[in-house]
Structure formats: C-alpha cells, structure tokens
Design a protein that fits this description.
- With about 325 residues, the protein is an alpha+beta fold.
- The chain has 2 domains: about 1-5 and about 255-320, 2-Layer Sandwich (Alpha-Beta Plaits); about 30-245, Alpha-lytic protease prodomain-like (Up-down Bundle), CATH 1.20.1510.10.
- The protein contains 10 helices and 4 strands; from the N terminus they run E-H-H-H-H-H-H-H-H-H-E-E-H-E.
C-alpha cells in the first residue's frame, strides 16, 4: 500500500515545496488594503448618520447609521482575518493552511447582518404605532450622502460585486452554486453584502423620507425600514448557509467528485474512499483510497486528476491487494 501527497496545480504549493499549504484567494493582499480604506469611510459616515438621524428624527437615517456602524465593525473582523490569514499562511500549526479563515469571518458577519436586520425591523414596527417628527431638509441630504459613501465603498472593493451575485435557476443553479461555493471569497462577499445592504437602506430611506415630506405619508419611513430588514435578512441567511457548508466540509461540487471517481474507475480500478472539500477560495483538497490489481502507482492517478483545476492538495492511497 502506498500513499502519495500531491499539488497537481499551480494554485497549490510551488514545485520546490509540495507540502506548503498556502490556500489564499486571488488578490488577497489587495483586497485587504481596500478593506481598510472602506472601514475609514464607513466609520466617518457612521458618526454623521447616527448623530444626524437622532437630531433630525428619522428612523431610516438612524437605522442606516446603526447598520453602517455594525458593518464597519464587521469589516474590521474581515480585515483582521485577511491580515491574520496572510501572516500565518505558512504556519504548520494549521494543517490545511489559513484559507478557511475568511469563511469563518464571513459566517460571523452573516450573524451580525441578521441581527441588524432584526433590529431594523423591530424599530420600524414600533414607529408605525408611535411616529416621531422628522426634519426632512436635513435627513434627506444625509441619506443621500450615505448612499454616495456606499457607492464609493463598492467601487473601492472592485471585484466584490461579483461575489455578491446570486446563482442561476434550474439545472444551472446547482452547477453555478457549486462553482461559486468553490471559488467565492466569502469574506469579501460578506463585506460587500454589508455595503450593499446599507446602500439599500439609504435608497429606501430616501424614498420613504421623500414620500413622507411631499405626500404626507409619514408611515413610508418605517415601512422602508421594514422592507430593508426583510431584504437584509434574506442576504444574511444566504451567506450563513454558504459559509456553514464550507466550515462543515460539505462536498463543494458533487459533479466534480463524481467525475474524479469515474475517471479512476474507467481503467478498471476501484475508488474505496473519496473526500473532497474546500480549503480556501478556489482551492480544493481531496483524499482518495484506490484499490488496483495493476502496477499503477500514485503518480499515475496524480496525472489522471491533473485536468481538474482547483485541486490544490491531493492525497492518494493505493492498495495493490485490491482490498
């Protein structure tokens, strides 16, 4: 019986050190730098919105400011996780590297998003029965400024927009979702979701405040808060589900696992055991136990699996006894 470890793709370790476990996402350091810039913007806007919303009596603007403060803290978690993962990428203490630290940060931030959504919805329901006076002339420009800050933040994050898109439908849904579960940077996705949700709050706050001011529909302000709470909670649950799947080592791509099994067994061998899981954005690890009566060794199966992009760490055990 022989056991072989391999990094069949350049996504894994360099040729001179096959047992290095650096499974960070593409552009990891660049995203980390942009995250710190966005944190500075959000913190400034948070102070303006919370203070201004309380002064001018707008729940929507206060909610926007509170959500801004929560996602500023969430982005601190994300930025520190990027930094820690980068600095400890070669630390042998982490058996499969630090690539999943971003998923842990994303899971934590999804919980924060959900709590913010519940808080906004709770406050909105209270304002239906106990409305407060609103200083429209000050509150509306403040909400517009909040939207501008969020748009600038989204622009700074660049590729984060792609991380926040939902999957397709039908059969394409499963393949698209499997692809994104493998390649998504859930830490970046969490940051972008915080910004997108806050932008949604800003837009709906502007709508609610404008309708209340010019049409007398005071109830529109808390209604927009309720709508925001609902939308944000849906996004949060989606992020919770996807990050939990990674943290629990759920098979990220069933079709890929079936393809690996099929390729090995086409030559008359038998796959006794197969494990496939994600170890970082765009990085998969696999363990195979193969029974064969031929003279094929682990290098043969390594070459066979070489066509699968994203297999960054492969462990192959060959049982020549066939058992």
């Amino acid at each position: 019986m022989t056991t072989h470890h391999a990094h069949p793709h350049p996504h894994g370790a360099p040729p001179g050190d096959r047992h290095q476990h650096v499974f960070l996402g593409v552009g990891h350091a660049a995203v980390e730098r942009r995250a710190w810039t966005v944190i500075a913007l959000c913190t400034t806007m948070m102070v303006l919105e919370v203070g201004g919303g309380l002064l001018f009596g707008s729940l929507a603007v206060v909610a926007d400011g509170l959500h801004m403060s929560m996602h500023a803290m969430a982005m601190l978690v994300a930025a520190f996780s990027y930094r820690y993962a980068r600095k400890h990428a070669n630390n042998p203490y982490y058996s499969f590297g630090t690539g999943k630290l971003g998923d842990l940060a994303g899971f934590s931030n999804a919980i924060v998003l959900l709590l913010v959504a519940l808080f906004i919805a709770y406050e909105a329901l209270g304002r239906f029965t106990a409305p407060v006076p609103i200083a429209f002339s000050e509150a509306i420009p403040l909400a517009v400024l909040g939207l501008v800050v969020n748009l600038v933040s989204a622009w700074l994050l660049g590729g984060g927009a792609a991380q926040a898109h939902g999957p397709a439908t039908g059969h394409a849904h499963a393949r698209h979702h499997a692809h994104h579960l493998t390649h998504r940077d859930h830490n970046l996705r969490a940051i972008f979701m915080h910004i997108a949700s806050d932008a949604a709050v800003s837009v709906l706050a502007i709508i609610g405040l404008t309708a209340a001011r010019y049409l007398g529909w005071v109830w529109m302000d808390p209604l927009m808060g309720l709508v925001c709470g609902t939308v944000i909670s849906v996004w949060a649950v989606s992020l919770l589900r996807d990050t939990a799947r990674v943290l629990l080592d759920v098979t990220p791509d069933v079709a890929l696992a079936e393809g690996i099994r099929r390729d090995v067994e086409t030559g008359g061998d038998q796959v006794l055991d197969l494990h496939l899981w994600r170890v970082g954005p765009g990085h998969l690890a696999a363990i195979l136990a193969i029974a064969t009566s031929s003279s094929r060794d682990a290098s043969h199966y390594r070459a066979l699996l070489g066509r699968y992009r994203g297999l960054s760490h492969v462990t192959i055990e060959v049982d020549r006894a066939g058992g």
